[in-house]
Amino acid sequence: MIPYARAALAAVDGVREAADEIGGLIRGHIAFGTVTSHGADLSSLLSAFHRDHPAISITLTEAGCEDLVAGLREGRLDGAIVALGAQRLAGLGLQVIDDQPLVAAVATDDLLATRRTITLQRLCEHTLICLPTGSGVRSILEAECRSLGLSPNVAFEASSPRALVSLVEQGLGIAVVPAPYVRNRAGVLALDIRPALRGRLALAWRLDGPVGPAARAFLERARAVL
User: Where does the UniProt annotation place the signal sequence (predicted)?
Assistant: First the structure.
């Protein structure tokens, strides 16, 4: 019942917003969510949108992918940046905004540095350095591990891929990062992971249910610039 109640309230707000839209003024509120540690330029998107629509307030929330998907389906969020793994996100519209291969970053003096690839099972036997829980890369890694009955041994966390690679250089473990972050880094090599993992992020929105003018305007802008 809760999703339907939220949808009904959103519909009432939508009527008010539609009346303003007819008069050339869009007002209202937008709730947007995102996984942590991504490369999307949200600050530029939000600032430009606010300049064009100062009567629209925006709430930005960081959360794990499962919570973001639930928020979209229940009507608590108008849009979100989510990680795409093997799971099907039924009922959501998706636009991929980033797609990078994930690699295992190892120090050049590590015993694994003589290899070109590493299996996910073997990777889970080592000390891992990863982005925080809720980030796109972490969500993708954990989802793939669960599907294979594996549990990653994450001992260190950092908020950016560059910081992870720096920890690898210090010999603290193996990092799972998008491939571009390992290029041109002295002291670090990239091993391809098998089965292959990709860091895919998407702009997501709910396909069913009412969408007010404020949310519609924001999603149109986000789809154009992200």
Answer: none
Q: What's this model's pTM, rounded to 2 decimal places?
A: 0.80
176 forms beta bridges with 104
The b-or-e profile of 187-219 (16+ CB within 10 A means b, else e) is ebbbbebeeebebbbbbbbbeebbbbbbbbbbb
Per-residue pLDDT of the chain (226 residues; tens, 9 = 90+): 555 555 555 555 555 555 555 444 588 999 999 988 788 899 999 999 999 999 999 999 999 888 999 999 999 999 999 988 767 799 999 999 999 999 999 999 999 999 999 999 999 999 999 999 888 899 899 989 999 999 999 999 998 999 999 999 999 999 999 999 999 898 999 999 999 999 999 999 999 988 899 999 999 999 999 9
CATH of 100-198, one of 3.40.190.290, 3.30.450.40, 3.40.50.970, 1.10.645.10: 3.40.190.290
DSSP character string of 73-86 = HTTS-SEEEEEE-S
Q: Which CATH superfamily is domain 1-97+202-225 in?
A: Periplasmic binding protein-like II (3.40.190.10)
